[in-house]
Amino acid sequence: MHIDAKATIGQYPALLVRATLRDLRTRLQWGLAELEEAAGLTSGNGRALLKVLRSEGLIEANGHGAWEVTQAGRTLCSATAAQRIARTTAEKALQQFLGRVERVNSDPYFLGKVTRVVLFGSMLKPEIERLSDVDVAVEVAPKEADRNRARVKNYERVERLAAQGRRFRNFLEQEGCWYWEVFGYLKGHSRVIALADYIVEKKFVLTVPHRVLIGSAESLPSAPIPSTPQRTVRKRRPRDCPF
């Protein structure tokens, strides 16, 4: 998906809305305070943005005072405002990305590993020569199978990075340090690669044309067929029945 860098959504710049949704999409739910922080708004000034996002179908309620990013919002998150690129450039960027995947999985420094890579989007349409970006979804899992040991290693990494001057905004960033190190390295500061979390975006990725490059293929479970209620046949009571 391509967006105009000068476009607006409501009265807000489209790029600001995209950046805000990108910050929020990994959370199961969030509130007004988190929205204001993600958008860089002062406390109490986020209600207008909240109203715009809801009216555009980019977010939806998820409990009292809680919200989540919709599929339309996730699609906007992966949109790019960069100039379109040649297919040869896209193919080169994809090969470099797969090289980074191999490095992550083989280098003991990284605490996570890539277990699935799925290509989707315009890259799979050979008739399109000028592409907006290369859409790739990745599934990342800890290399350490034992959850307690994995958490200990993660916090050892957090302490080491903090000593080097790295600042963590909150507890969730610390808990997910192992993951974000992998994800950031895979992105590689590339404006061509549009990287998505496969677990978060699975429903969207599997409903559009896609190709599994690493790992096993999956399909969405079929929606259950609603059962037709059986009509109850009432039996007639015999004439001599006292009730």
Walkthrough of the structure:
With 243 residues, the protein is α+β, with helices and mostly antiparallel strands. It has two domains: 8-77, Arc Repressor Mutant, subunit A (Orthogonal Bundle), CATH 1.10.10; 85-214, no CATH class. 40% of the residues lie in helices and 17% in strands. It contains nine helices and ten strands. The chain has helices at 14-24, 32-39, 47-55, 71-77, 87-106, 147-163, 171-175, 177-187, 198-205, and strands spanning 8-9, 12-13, 59-61, 67-69, 85-86, 112-120, 130-131, 134-142, 193-197, 210-214. The strands form four sheets. Strands 9-8-6-10 form a four-stranded mixed beta sheet. It has a two-stranded antiparallel sheet with strand order 1-2. A hairpin with a 2-residue loop joins strand 1 (8-9) and strand 2. It is globular. The mean pLDDT is 87.
What keyword list fits this structure?
243 residues; alpha+beta; 2 domains; four-stranded mixed sheet; two-stranded antiparallel ribbon
Q: How can the largest sheet be summarized?
A: 4 strands, mixed
The helicity comes to 25-40%
Shape: globular
Number of domains: 2
Number of helices: 9
Name the strands of the widest sheet in spatial order: 9-8-6-10
Spatial separation of the terminal alpha carbons = 71 Å
Number of strands: 10
Order of helices and strands: EEHHHEEHEHEEEHHHEHE
User: What's the pLDDT, averaged over the residues?
Assistant: 87
